[in-house]
Amino acid sequence: MTSAVVVGSGPNGLAAAVRLAQEGISVRVLEAEPSIGGGSRSSAATLPGLVHDECSAFHPMALASPFLSSLGLERHGLRWRWPEIELAHPLDGGRAALLYRDLAETASGLGAGGRAWAATVGSTAQRFAELVPDLLGPVLHVPRRPVAFARFGGLAALPASALTRHWKDEQASALFAGIAAHAFTRLDAPFSSAVGLVLGAAGHAVGWPVAEGGSQRIADALVARLAELGGRVETGVRVERVEDAGPADLLLLCVAPRAAARILAGRLPGAVARSYARYRHGPAAFKVDYAIEGDVPWAAADVRRAGTVHLGGTFEEISRSEEQAVQGRMPANPFVLVGQQFVADPLRSSGGLNPLWAYAHVPNGYAGDATEAVTAQIERFAPGFRGRIRAVSARTVAQAEAHNANCVGGDVAGGANTPSQLVFRPRAAADPYATGVPGVFLCSASTPPGGGTHGMAGFHAAERALAHLRR
């Protein structure tokens, strides 16, 4: 019987394992940590009874994922929950830009910028279903919908600063800046509009839901599906070299490129080894979890109904802070993402206390403590927030990497989203998943389509592995 070993139990590793098991292959998943899930783990980070997501929190791309959505994970306990407002972006003076699932309602609330929003993010949302297979596929491919993809590509190639230059509305521009900042890159760089367009459009097309009971439920459902197909997961098994994985016909590595180079030392072709060594990682996420009494006292009352909140002020402020993080300087007022998952999923709360999820964009490898900077940004737009805090748990950049080795230097995106690495990730090759070692493939977020809980990097790597077997 053909056998495979997958190293890493994040969504991509588990997706790869499931895809291989669907073809009757005997699959073992090896996870170095005591718990499964990689970036989709959840825990009681602050107080007993409260559920905090450890990394990924909102999952528009999991819903959009052609592979994950085909697996019937609802049979294994996965339930999606949506907030009333998908995303809020507060501004000083008690104002806020709001992203609703309904495009017309969103555009109406953006005033003078509503028409520009509808023409860019809105037009992408209207074609989202036909674009998704291309958006979540390898970058170098023949588009299934070439006309629609070309229209999207023309907008996506623009710097976010250029796309929003003539929007003539502070709220619309700020809302887009916050979404584009999910790419952890400069907003004046080419292609910095891409993530903003995709995630903004997804907010209208499928929403920004949470997994009921925590993001851990996504990994649990994938493991249940794998077990149904005869596969298994072993935790506490760290793979430092090929021999640690044991004998197998296929080896799929859900690891960062430099880790793959260490595991495959002495086996990689020289050019591949050099490419993996040169692979760049982007800014880090400094994670802070709070246990709060009641909700957050946002100055703009509507923000209390939003699942995700972006904090950073105007487009110009966010652009400046992202530039500083990319350059290795700690921003005085970093861009902060806040997750109010409890708004959509009350099961995460207990005894009048709610879990609040947050992280700030900081330089890769940042050695300081950004807890106060995160708290101050929340307090800026929610005066009185400090008085609601009952417990705090912070995870430094070094602790984040120790907890998940794929977060190199605290990078949760799988690599720097520079223009070159957006196109050639993790190296310039027709097959980005192939390592050059027969039967061994890379399937982490460092391969296309990049970061996000969608499992598509794992799926595509598994397809390449299956093609290898057929030769």
TrEMBL record:
**Highest taxon of source:** Bacteria
Q: Which InterPro entries match?
A: FAD/NAD-bd_sf
Looking up PANTHER family in the UniProt record yields: DEHYDROGENASE-RELATED, PHYTOENE DEHYDROGENASE
**Protein name as catalogued:** NAD(P)/FAD-dependent oxidoreductase
